[in-house]
Amino acid sequence: MRPSSILLFASALTPIASSLAIEKRHHQAWPEAIRSYYIAAADRLSSLRSTVPTTTLDSLTPSTCNIASPTMPSISGLPPVSPSLSLYHVAIGRGTQNYTCDTAIPSSAPVAVGASAILYNTTCMSSLAPAALAQLPSSALLTPTPKEGKALFPAQALMSGHHYFTGSTPTFNLHTESHNFGIQFTKVLSKVPVPDDRQQTGQDGSKAVPWLKLSSANAEGGLPEDASPVKEVFRVNTAGGSAPKTCDAMPARFEVQYAAEYWFWG
User: What is the pTM of this model?
Assistant: First the structure.
């Protein structure tokens, strides 16, 4: 393999292999496609480090990956990305869907009041291993969400940012200590329930939350000062997160663990 080819391969593989280098005790719980992919990735990186200077490998970032080829997952009823847009970023979101209940009426339905998630960069993986990426949301639910500030946790280095709600506005804050990809307020344009044959349930048995298409939008007070160029965001390949059908035996406020792929276009 020519030196240039080695560097290209390493630049794509380095962020992927480190993004989910979880403790060995978790490995057997992962689907075979993901487990075998990362074992091969780790082996390949080990061999590359003997031929490529460490400083060169460590300087490579996900921005060096070719993201012109990835194909975003689709589902019947969800509008496609607008033709004028290009892929900007791909991330796995791991966190909670948040709900409230009227405890005085057990038969009432829970009300969604937002979500909170940490986003992890999987942009390179969307091109190199889309089949493995599709299984990451359900795999992510097998391990606790890493606590921020744990610098030694491998996934921490791949954190893209945070997803939360500003009032009632879905917000994607792709600004961390190591990079600034901007902040975007959004609104839901389309919501499609996940069909039974594509369900990825949570460990608590919760069904997958719907797939979404969101577009950029103003929140109360206008656009964020550090607005990103993102125009559309898709939530796909969701796992868990749905509330029970009724509030029977539920507290006034509760959270349901979920994970999903987020595709950003701008």
Answer: 0.76
